[in-house]
Amino acid sequence: MNSEGVQAVPQTVPFWNDPKKRAIVYQIATLCMVGLLGYYLFTNTVTNLQRQNIASGFSFLQKESAFEIGESVIPYSAADSYGKALLVGALNTLKVAFVGIVITIILGTVVGVARLSSNWLVARLAAVYIEVMQDIPILLQLFFWYALFYESLPSPRQAICPGAGIYLCNRGVAFTIPEAHPAHKYMLLAFIVGCVIVYLIRRWAKKRQAQTGKYFPVFRVSLALVLGLPFLVWLASGAPTALDAPKLVGFNFKGGLTVSPEFIALLLGLVLYTAAFVAEVVRAGIQSVSKGQTEAAFSLGLKPVLVLNLVILPQALRVIIPPLTSQMLNLTKNSSLAVAIGFPDFVSVANTTMNQTGQAIEGVALIMAVYLVFSLSTSAFMNWYNKRVALVER
Amino acid sequence: MEQHALTEEVLKPPVASVGVLGWMRKNLFNSIFNSILTLLTIYFLWEIVPPFVEWAFVNGLWLTSSEACRAGEGACWSVVTQNIRFILFGFYPYDQHWRPLLSMLILFTLLGFSRNRKFWTKHLGYAWIAGLISMGLLMKGGIFGLESVESTKWGGLPLTLLLAVFGLTAAYPLGVILALGRQSKMPIVKILSVLYIELIRGVPLISLLFMSSVIFPLFLPEGVNINKILRAQAAIILFTAAYIAEVVRGGLQGIARGQYEAAESLGLNYYLTMRLIILPQALKIVIPPSVSILISAFKDTSLVVIIALYDVLKTTQSTLSNPLWMGFSKEAYFFVALLYFLGCFSMSNFSRKLEKELSAGG
Q1: What's the rounded Cα separation, in Å, for the pair B3 and A48?
Q2: At A338, is the secondary structure helix, strand, or coil?
């Protein structure tokens, strides 16, 4: 190599050898490709819509829906708009998801703990439950429960009565509930006030314990407050005990609280299916806390309740919460299968709307948007909670 | 030695701590709470199991007509046995049922071989490609003197299996690309990948299936039609890819930084680094979670019922809507549940076995 050869090397690198410039080229190319694909699909859609004379846009939401919805949290009739119908659907989805999540967490925890039980029979049974439920598609389970309701239960006239005030028939389950009374509103208010006070007491007790080391029986006081305040309100308003029992009128039950077979089948399917996954999550969480932690806590002289509260749970929750969040989201997303058994959830109502108005794109876009909002808000909340319990490392 | 053994008195453990009794004491009755729990469980099982066995097996009817079923008290398995060919193969021409059967056998053989890690070579890959193509050709027909069968007539178990297997096979490369995109240093590529993955994971599969059945046709230029099965397949692929991307991302994050740096210092470019160094390691880590994705894809194919494709669940449903067999849903759904259970259980067993082997350093 002579000196001439060295000098022949150009001082500036050609742009195809510069990773930074190359990256820009790649990104522009990707953007162009995605943009072109989007443009192609968009123009096709526009021409197809024009050809089929479908006006796009969300103006159909104000039109009269002209279809009834079987069950609703808010008053609704066929004269209301599509927008309101969709709102009813969204509220029904929220109802199923909320009730489902609460029951699933309880059942999943019980099964998860049972899976680790020292009792061989219980542990085996829990294992079988988990394996079987995980391996059968949720939709099939929904069909099964729905069919069981429709085929195996008698008509309202021959309703089975498993306990006082509860009637099982193929039109659903009718419960006896306390008769509507103005006191109930104040009891609910008292309950909420109780919860707020409990929250404040917890904060105060924690602070005091950190400063002075004095222990305050938070749990017992909280329980007394949350249950006691509504009870006091109930007593103060004259202790109304009138009950509203379901009565057979014609071919169906009137009065009381009737839960539709669709709702029960959906809830049963979702809860039993998701609980199997939650049980595995709980099991993994409990197993992640090493035995030494429990032993160390006991050797410090802590009571079993405190060992659970201060040592085991905080560590297990850290492992449990992220996968638990995704299971809760799965439950919410799976509730969309309600459309298959005729429960009027959001997807079901949106599907009817699409069929009536022909606004397919808007309908699917609405479904996606609503579930994205549910998913993102749930995971935002869970992330916030997770941050609170997460390990603070140096 | 011998004398010592003779003189030492051998104390037998008490009867209550060995054998069946000992086992029961240790595992079922080791505390008051556990004893109560055991008794309650036994009572519960006693209430459930004998009546079920009586219903399903003692009084069960296996090969009768529906009239005999309605007269009988037990389970009517006849609803399955009398309609088995429709449930398994749907509207596929009756005299051609051997073709989907053969396709399924090819698939099961391939799956059987793939279970054993000894066979994990390039040849198995070629065998899979050949197998998948021949399965498609067998189903479709039109060559080698086979009668051509429109894909609208495909149905039953083969459709379920095809949707799951083709769905995963096609989704895997897409998922790997998305995972690489999400890990990329280029912001636009990264944002696009993240958007896609989070968007798809945030919505239920059913919304994508609706999209495939009502919106996909609008996306295509006039005169171009893609049949319903392919559209549903596309939706399943797009959906599964997002989940695979997250699994593969887990694998990519498990690779030490040193591996990237070593590849760079060898002068490998991005493509070669990924193909030769990173992906072979990352994909090996994610085999067990990929099997769980296959399991969920297999279960999720049942959702095509909602857009009226005749998979094994839909054929069962339409059997049940036949007035002759109405009202025997329990038995029919038990059968379908058993099919799904066998499929998923063998896969999850395999996944567990594999995880053990891989963690043992195999």
Answers
A1: 100
A2: helix
Q: What is the ipTM of this complex?
A: 0.88
CATH placement of domain B93-359: 1.10.3720.10
Contact assessment for residue B223 and residue B156, using Cβ atoms and an 8 Å cutoff: no
Low-confidence ranges of chain A (pLDDT < 70): 1-11, 251, 389-394
CB contact under 8 A, A125 and B37: no
Q: Please enumerate in sequence order all residues whose Cβ is within 8 A of that of A353, keeping only pairs 6 or more positions apart, or say none.
A: A60, A65, A82, A85, A86, A359, A363
Please report which helix (H) or strand (E) contains residue B280, including its range: helix B279-285
Side-chain half-sphere exposure of B187, counting CA atoms within 13 A: 2
Distances (CA, A) of A57 to A39, A49, A50, A358, A363: 19, 12, 13, 11, 10
Q: Smallest CA–CA separation between A374 and chain B, in Å? A: 8
The predicted model scores a pTM of 0.86
Burial class (CB in 10 A: 0-12, 13-18, 19+), A205: middle
Dihedral sign, CA of A324, A326, A327, A333?
Answer: positive
Give A-chain residues touching B327 at CB under 8 angstroms.
151
Residues in chain B closer than 8 A to A141 (CB atoms) = 337
B226 at interface of A, judged by CB pairs closer than 8 A: no
CA closest to B186 among chain A residues: A23
Longest dimension (CA), chain A: 108
Q: CA-to-CA distance for B270 and A391, rounded, in angstroms?
A: 36
Domain positions in chain A:
13-46, 82-135+261-386
Partners of residue B313 in chain A, C-beta under 8 Å: 137, 139-140, 143
Say yes or no for a CB contact (<8 Å) between A47 and B306. no
Pairwise CA distance, residues A306 & A301, whole Å: 10
CA distances from B93 to A207, B107, B141 (A): 76, 21, 12
Integer CA distances (angstroms), B178 to A38, B195, B249, in order: 18, 10, 9
- Which CATH number among 3.40.50.2300, 3.90.79.10, 1.10.760.10, 1.10.3720.10 corresponds to the domain A82-135+261-386? 1.10.3720.10
The pLDDT tens digits for A289-326 are 888 988 999 899 988 878 888 888 888 888 888 888 88
Among all residues of chain A, which has the CA nearest to that of B218? A45
Token representation of residue A296: 């160390």
Q: Closest Cα partner for A137 from A279, A376, A340?
A: A340
Neighbour count for residue A230 (Cβ, 10 Å) = 21
- List, for residues A258-268, the tens digit of each pLDDT value: 888 899 999 99
Determine whether the interchain pair B220/A351 forms a contact, defined as Cβ–Cβ distance below 8 Å.
no
Show me where the domains of chain B are located. 93-359
Please check whether residue B209 is in contact with residue B235, taking contact to mean a CB–CB distance below 8 angstroms.
Answer: yes
Highest mean pLDDT of the ranges A274-278, B99-103, B289-293, B294-298: A274-278
Burial of A68 per CB tally in 10 Å (0-12, 13-18, 19+): exposed
Give the C-alpha separation, A195 to A237, whole Å. 21
How far is the C-alpha of A212 from the C-alpha of A219, rounded, in Å? Answer: 19
Residue B42 forms contact with A (CB below 8 Å): yes
CB of B220 within 8 Å of a chain A CB? The answer is yes
